[in-house]
User: Fold these one by one.
Assistant:
Number 1:
Amino acid sequence: MTYKCVFSDIDGTLLNSKHQISEKTKKKVQQLAIQNIPFILVSARMPKGMHYFLDELQIKAPMVSYSGGLILDENQKVIYSKGFSVEMAKRLYKYIKYYYQIPVSFYVENHWMVDEIDEGIEEESIITGLKPEKLDLNGVKKVHKLLVIAEAGIVDRLEMSLKEKFSGLKIYKSKDTYLEIMDESVSKSSAIQFLCDKMKIGLHQTVSFGDNYNDLDMLLLTGKGFAMANGAQGVLESIPTHTLSNDEDGIVYALDNLVGE
């Protein structure tokens, strides 16, 4: 296939296990830019946690944050925004605090707000290079995402109980210890469809890369979706096309060797 656009997850996909972009990958992405092939980051991260990578890659391109809840154009202006109400966010917060007594992260555009800081929040701060703000919902009209970081067993139980108690939401694990909560209409695949329509690129002309469960819909939608070798077992089982791991420049390997197969 001849591809005209590449969509990539960040953590565990673009970044290696040292949370870095390899020089080989940077060079490949810059080659794509010269060929006018957009390399679009698609992540659960907030925009502020993604800008750095565009600068490091030395490219201008649209960006999908909050797994499709917020889309920015190549000039970093918001062109799509979807969240849930503050009232819903407060209901979720009250339930989680009452039954689980664990910190809850609120994401509103470029703001990351927390009610308390524990080891999980500190680790997320180190990974993203961002510092959380004190929780303050005054003036907030909608919330793009809630995130709970806890032990895997707690996350499993919380996921089940929230799905039983609440409707209209997308509730899923982005990794074993991370539970993400967003509006049910938000997805990486819907964001890709939105951007492809805007850029007048057919889905059959697109390639995507991901490693975790919140990447599945994206990998299944694009013309060719590649699961990284380091991906979650369920992702590797669901996606037929695999590439090398994030520590082996899997994106570069697939684009150079596997896309045309």
Number 2:
Amino acid sequence: MLTEVTATRYITPLREGGSLPGIVEADDLGTYVMKFTGAGQGRKTLVAEVICGELGRRLGLRVPRLVAMELDPVIGLGEPDQEVQELLKASGGLNLGMDFLPGSIGFDPLAYEVGSGEAGAVVWFDALINNVDRSWRNPNMMVWHGDLWLIDHGATMIWHHNWPTAATASAKPYNASDHALARFRPDIAAAAAKLAPLVTEELLTEVTAQVPDVWLADEPGFDSTDALRRAYVDALLPRAATVHERIVLEAPTEDRPSQAPGWLKERLKPLPHPTKKAQQDGGEK
């Protein structure tokens, strides 16, 4: 089970996140980014954060430490924002905290170079957990003390929103064409060779055990929290062995045609996409 702390002071909301997380202090003197059970995405977002965050850390990826954080809504009485007050009132009890990384900056692919090995490990991991929210539009990565850190895993394992179709959904390919690290020629084969053998039944059982029972209780179709934990293991374990064979890397999509003048389009032209560049090089030979 995650280490449990108690929130003692609400500092400020982080309005960049759709769920309105906040920075809080706790009774262990730590500062955390708190994600709330009362947010619109609900407790399954927190379950995904724990399973994927703890799994990523055990695979050697940098993920901020997670804690279970007890919240008394009374700490928000001095908050002037009505939306924040309502969120705190709806989130009494156990919530999720992740270590605040002071001085960290958002990942920018134009300012921070990532090696193909590290890029491959992150893309493979995101394929395993089916992370749909680490694209060039929203990287969900931070740079702290010169290192790359992975954050925000709430939009993963989307099959747990519809368990009857989980087996089919978890077997689908993973399209990494828009991944924030696709431009760095991720070495997915090397990542799979290194990481896939580490994803054992024992490791997944250990990771799912970190999720508080209160976030797993009363899930339709399951008679116990242990049965639900087992469902997560059953979805991830076979996927780890073969997902590298189903990672798609094609030309990235565009939100809309560029309206910039020709000279500016040339300056804004992205780096060659790894798959496309490899195809071109092969054709020239």
